[in-house]
Amino acid sequence: MSVLVAQAVEVAYGEAKALAGVDLTVAPGESVALIGRSGSGKTTLLHVLAGLVHPGAGSVARAGTVAVVFQNANLIPQLSTVENVSFSAAETADGEELLGRVGLSGKLDHLPSELSGGEAQRAAIARALAQQPDVLLCDEPTGHLDSDTSARVLDLIEALRAELGFALVIATHDPDVAARCERIVEIHDGRLTVEAGR
Amino acid sequence: MTVYVFRSLLRSPLQTLTRVLVLAASAALLGAMLLFIGHSLRTMTGGAVRSVPLDWQGPVASERAAEHVARRVGAEPGIRAAVPTATAPFAAAETRGAAGVIQAGNGQILALPANALGAFGTVRLLHGSLVPGAIVLDQQLAATLQAQVGDTVSISPRRGARPVALRVSGIAIVGASDIVFQPLNPLLGPAPAQPPSNIIVMPLGTFASRVAPALATVAPSSPAAAAVPGAQSGVSWQVDVQVDPQALTGSPRHAFDQANQLRNRVERRLPGQVQFVDNLSDSLSTSAGDALYAEALFVMLAVPGALIGLGLVYLAALGAVERDRRALFLLHARGASRRRLLGLAALESALLAAVAGALGVVIALAATRALVGGALTNWILVVPACIGLAFLGAFAARVAAGAVALGERSRPGAPLWQRLWLDLIALAVSGLVYWLTARTGFSAVINPDSNPTLSLSIYMFLAPAFLWIGSTLLLVRLRARLFAWLAPSRATSESGYLLASAARRAPAVNRGLVLVALLLAFAVDLEIFTATYDQQSRVDAQLTIGADVVISGATGLQHKVAQVPGVSGTTALDHTYAYVGPDLQDTFGINASTFTRGTSLRDSYFVGGTAHEMLARLRANADAILVSKETVTDYSLRRGDLLKLRTLDHRTGTFHVVPFHVAGIVQEFPSAPRDSFMVANLAYLLHATHDPGPNVMFAAAAGSPAPLAHRIAAATARDGAIVKNISEQTTQTVSSITTVDLRGISKIESAFALVLAAAAMALYVSVALVERRQELATMAALGKSVGRVAAFIWSELALILAASVVLAALLGWLLATMLVAMLQHAFDPPPDHLALPWGSFAALLGVTLGGAVVATLIAVLAVKRLPLGAVLREE
């Protein structure tokens, strides 16, 4: 049983095809790295998987809750860290506890503008986890972070996945990040070209 | 650079169109106000000119001099008519008929060329004509002498002189006799005199040959020329001049200058031959003072509206802030200097201003033409004003929005003005200036002793200006406190998130709140002021004319008038004159039992009692009299004191002493003049003056006064009655600011305020959608429904609207109170209370709520159509 199944997905922006017949299946608890150059279609595929973009052709089946961590964290600027987490949290989720787990228990009432890039991204992860997802989609979660912070954020995601058991699809152009995943899928000009297991 | 700006504007056509439309609306308001005020000032000039029965009266030494000067003056450009005339007293007049000899007392003769009757509006022929060798009798004298056309009247020029017998060739009504027979002293200026009770009009030639030889000539420069009004002792030869109204253009001030220049030029061309008593400049000078009040109204009513409109332009400019941010960063990155960026902003503003300004002029012309019709001659001035305002608005908004785009914001923490408490200081200054202005009696119009020119006191604008500024700043301060109090410290519920979000979006909510609250306050201020103004215009008109319909110039018409359909009640009164010591005052004899059937009285007209009580006092004593406050003060009078008046005895033409008893103080009275006057019982006064009967009648209309006045005029046409109605009076009153028909202004401004209030809502939402698109997309990506996401927009709108309505009501009322108080000299009488137009308020609230609902629907649709994928990629 898969938590995500994309079949022959096509997305076009005007004349340009962003995705051209993509098939992808994600098993429960699996971690998949989606690699490719800028403009290759990584983010579009993530958005299609998350339901934010409707494919022009093909289909996407989701067997559970899907949460997204965006490249820019995208916290609601006028809600505090804990409010951002609780705003979209599942009923049983504990925002404060989740923020404690991502190391932000001291910044519960800080506004996003008062957080560093790494802290904002960790808050975004906590917010995604508060939705108690079966699949976590991360779009270049470390794209704007320095290497140390990136490593800490990735460690955190790995640890949480291990603990909570959600599947992870992470879009990145960084081979080191991809190397942490169980499966690597490369996308080029909107098509999956290489798929490899670790 | 121009191409770049063009492309930049065309890339966001909807936002560019919004900016153009909002700019055009602001420019249109200013343009419409300029056009309207220009039109109103010209109307005031026209009214002031029309209200003068005789423009200039120049005393000269002889008939020959009069004819010579009249010929020379009449040839001057700008002069419509110059006529040699004369006025002279006569001692008595009598007729012999079947009933025997009937005599009338003394009176005045007006002599003028037989063909000059049409040149002035002072003599209105009822029957016959003015022909050489004959006379025309004033209607009242004809009634006294029971004379008709064809009868012969013997006139005694002075006591002891041989009577002159002349045939009656016509009956007329001589109007403005207080001006026609005033003593002429050019150094003293106009001094309207007590109108004579008996008037004879005769051709100048007949007068010169038959009457003048029996009388001495009053030399133009002799002290007799400045004698007590009504005490003329000899012939006053003069040249009466009517200026061509076409020569007097523009505002009363401008027309006043033109009239003075014209008179100076004419006098300079005839050195030593004539100097004029200038009734025209006197009227225009009064009108110029009123015009200043009209201009003050313009500044106080239109300028805040235009400024708030420009605030919306800023809001509209913020709609393009995302595009600006990218464009500016790109230009910055390519090395564009700040100066170049400003140049681009200026060029863009100029392009927008050209289109919006032209559109504004067209809207202004169309709106004003629809309201007032006719030619709007000052539109050439309006074009640069509209384009200039549009440019300034567009440029300021562009630079401010550019600063937002570049993130050039003030440092965190309370802004400097809050730390310095400038809001409260501005309010305190406003209160202080208001108090100081109140102490000096709100003298908005200054007339320095040493300088004959009028000017507006700029101090009077400071109080409302500081009130606007202080209120705006206080609004921002209070918004922060109120929202902080409403919002939870840590939101956990849906409403908590909404409140927390609104509380922390200070700059956006502030600008929305300030604009909507100030727009609504502007509208409330305008509606209250206009309603109060309209209320007072009606009161003023009724006070000036006396009643819905006023019939004068004939006696014994009460029964006839009461029978006219549409008359709901009548009352008759007698208007005469009496001396209190040396002061000649208008005196009204009324029937206290029927007076309120024909007109209405307000308690504010009296001091020391209500209108009802004062009428009861008159009824209680036959010789009771109400006098003015000045009379009470000047003669140390108290209620119950004996007051001996010298009243005019119409039987003998002389003044004789009649005792009255003071019953109270009257300040205003229907048809009474603005200075001192008295009110007594009709029966007692008629008995004392031997007046044949009440000479004025007030009629209350059951419906519209104008058609009723026409019916009454038709019914009394043969009696020679003069019929006036309150509707025409409202448009004719030239002695006060009510000449400016504020309904036109209020229609323009109300429409403007309503459109902008609704536009403010729509703009607020569209700017919020632009500014918050990523945030809204994130919420949608987190699984929130469209309704819950849109709630973040409409809940802010609802909070802004609720706070704005409360604040607008308070600020609008305060501003209207201040405005009415500061322009109290324009109101005569001052209003007892402000008029509150609930219907207009409901319409305002309805339109604003409608705008909010439409804006919310826009928000829901926009959130629904938000391209999540594209928006979430944006950095």
Share of helix of chain B, binned: 40-55%
Percent of sequence in beta strands of chain B: 15-25%
Measured on Cα atoms, how large is the radius of gyration of chain A? 16 Å
Which ranges of chain B are low-confidence, i.e. pLDDT below 50, for 5 or more consecutive residues? 223-227, 448-452
Main sheet of chain B?
12 strands, mixed
Note the quaternary state here: heterodimer
The major beta sheet of chain A can be summarized as: 6 strands, mixed
Question: What's the shape of chain A?
Answer: globular
Q: What is the global morphology of chain B?
A: elongated
Strand content of chain A: 25-35%
Distance between the termini of chain B: 27 Å
Strands in their spatial order, largest beta sheet of chain A: 5-6-7-3-8-9
Structural class of chain B: alpha+beta
Total beta strand runs of chain B: 24
Whole-number average pLDDT of chain A? Answer: 87
- The overall pLDDT average of chain B reads 82
Largest interface: A-B, 26 and 24 residues
Helical percentage of chain A: 25-40%
Q: Keywords, please?
A:
heterodimer, A: 198 residues, alpha/beta, six-stranded mixed sheet, three-stranded antiparallel sheet, 6 helices, 9 strands, 30% helix, 30% strand, globular, B: 875 residues, alpha+beta, twelve-stranded mixed sheet, six-stranded mixed β-barrel, 24 strands, 17% strand, elongated
Explained architecture:
The complex is a heterodimer of chains A (198) and B (875). Chain A is an alpha/beta fold. Chain A has helices at 42-50, 81-87, 95-101, 117-129, 147-164, 175-179, and strands spanning 4-13, 16-26, 31-35, 57-62, 66-69, 135-139, 167-172, 183-188, 191-197. In chain A, the strands form two sheets. In chain A, strands 5-6-7-3-8-9 form a six-stranded mixed sheet, sandwiched between helices. In chain A, strands 2-1-4 form a three-stranded antiparallel sheet, with helices on one face. Chain A is globular, with a radius of gyration of 16 Å. Helix content of chain B is 54%, strand content 17%. Chain B has 28 helices and 24 strands. In chain B, strands 1, 2, 3, 4, 5, 6, 7, 8, 9, 10, 11 and 12 form a twelve-stranded mixed sheet that branches. In chain B, strands 16-17-22-19-21-20 form a six-stranded mixed barrel. The longest helix of chain B has 40 residues, at 279-318. The chains are: A alpha/beta (198), B alpha+beta (875). Chain A binds chain B through residues 43-44, 47, 50, 52-53, 68, 70, 72, 74-80, 82-83, 86-88, 108-109, 111, 127, 131, and chain B through 489-492, 497, 500-501, 503-505, 774-775, 778-784, 868-869, 872-873, 875.
